[in-house]
Amino acid sequence: MSQPVAYTGWQSEKSGFMGRLSGPGFAMVAAATGMALLPINLHSWSAALFCLPVSAVLLLLAFGRVMGLSADEWITLAVRHQIAVARKTNVFLSGAFAPRSNDSGQQPMDLPGVLARLRILEAPDGLGGQLGISHDPVAGTYTAIARISHPGLALVDTDKQNGRVAAWAAFLRTFCTEDSPIIRLAVHQRCLPDDGAALHSWTARHISPDAPAAAVTALSELMESAGPAATTRETYLAVTLSSARARLAIKGAGGGQIGAAAVLVRELHALHGALSSASLQVVEWLSPRKVAQTVRTGYDPEAQLMLATRNAAAQAPTWQGTEAGVEPALAGPAAAEAGWGTYQHDGAWTVSYQVRTWPQSEVYATFLQPLMKPRQNARRSMSLVYEPLGPRRARQELAREKSKRQSARYLRTKTGRDESEDERREAQLARDQDAARAAGQGVVRMTAVIAVTVTDPAELETACAELQADAAASGLELRRMWGAQDVGFAASALPLGQGLPDRRMGF
């Protein structure tokens, strides 16, 4: 039997204007240097009494850290948040409480914050059904969402485990081509208490009329006692197409949203073989009502029981009620408020985290398993977001990374400073990645965002502490998304494939 493969080599993205300094940070260092030299040029002690403290404050803002962020970034976030609070743009109201427009008399968009611009489109899936597509007209993207099932890695032998991970890597590598229309892949998983509605509905439909009463009673008692203790996991795969990348194909398919939907459906059909090779089974591509349901249950955990019961009943041939899912116009929350460190929405409270540091040591393929352990007091959601890079851009990015590290090494040598083991390791890692790229491997940008949601605010900090402890067991370093909890919720708690920013500070 082969040995289990260990994985390492995550390279943090660094996008500072100069070294690790951002643009404002570099400007503050330059200003601090000028202020420190000004008294020397003026030959004035009185000027020094004013300039030197100002220079020290500027340097503290440039190099200081607050809650894991540089001081200037933290101040920017704090000011932006306070402006939003003063203007009440951090509060969202919908439904009966939504303010009405004086011009049209219509209520505003159903989704808050960064999701307000999204539209849920409907397109034929090529198999006789309807496909729900999340369209972002600002970014020019179209996203389809699949509910998938997978056999997992924990209870299989080493050969199968290695094969499944290699197949997933091969699946990602197929998108690392020049001008691929698919610009983003996101895997989203939720771990939530199982309400037992589907089990009860299935049992009610399949119990034989002549079954012994004692057996029926025993079965009912067993479900009542074991059902609430169970948990369920939902896994989704979001595939995002860029209209800019696929403009020629879209034009050939008729242009506009219809052409973009046709091109996306064509790409989705091409994925099935690669997904099967990775032991991933597409249960269904979500319809517009199913897409809306995933959003609705993300904002309102209490709706999970009602929707699960109704969806299970809708499977009966004689069902005459509302069809499964949620009307897209009702997908969003009735009310939501973004705080500095929390996000409140429809009777629930969520805290979102971003993975800032991946394991530095070698880990096995199951290292993320502690993060999705069942919890009775909270539900957890995690999104892994991948953005494949084409060969040309990958070569440029890795060459730039090597040049930065070589320049830093040269400066350290000239100034007589010793090179730390961390810096030596990062330089070797950059060379290894470039060698792997040259050998035909793909390069992707990747991040992970995690959310923990509770319905009792008294349990929120306990749930957060448990999540951070499990992250530490996985070798991850999490950072609470201070001042951006609404954005973090959209990326971590909803399977809409919200992507990476163009540049990520501090990586």
Topology:
Elements: H1 23-42, H2 45-63, E1 65-66, E2 69-70, H3 71-87, E3 91-93, E4 119-124, E5 130-136, E6 141-149, H4 158-173, E7 182-193, H5 197-206, H6 213-226, E8 231-242, H7 247-252, H8 256-277, E9 281-285, H9 288-299, H10 303-314, E10 335-338, E11 343-345, E12 348-357, E13 379-389, H11 391-414, H12 421-438, E14 443-454, H13 460-473, E15 477-480, H14 485-492
Antiparallel strand pairs: 1-2, 3-10, 4-5, 5-6, 6-8, 6-9, 7-8, 7-13, 10-11, 11-12, 12-14, 12-15, 13-14
Helix pairs in contact: 1-2, 5-10, 11-12
Describe what this molecule looks like in 3D.
The chain has 507 residues and is of the alpha+beta class. It has a domain at 64-194 and 230-390 and 442-492. The protein has 14 helices and 15 strands. The strands form two sheets. Strands 3, 4, 5, 6, 7, 8, 9, 10, 11, 12, 13, 14 and 15 form a 13-stranded antiparallel sheet that branches. The longest helix is centred in the C-terminal third of the chain and has 24 residues, at 391-414. Residues 402-414 have a biased composition (Basic residues). The chain crosses the membrane at residues 21-38, 44-63. Keywords: Membrane, Transmembrane, Transmembrane helix. Residues 415-424 have a biased composition (Basic and acidic residues).
Structural class based on helices, strands and sheet pairing:
alpha+beta
Helical coverage, percent range: 40-55%
Order of helical and strand elements: HHEEHEEEEHEHHEHHEHHEEEEHHEHEH
Low-confidence stretches: 104-109, 503-507
**Beta-strand fraction estimate:** 15-25%
Tally of individual helices:
14
How far the N terminus sits from the C terminus, by CA atoms, comes to: 39 Å
Radius of gyration, in angstroms, nearest whole number: 26 Å
Q: Label the overall shape.
A: globular
Mean pLDDT: 81
Per DSSP E runs of 2 or more residues, the count of β-strands stands at 15
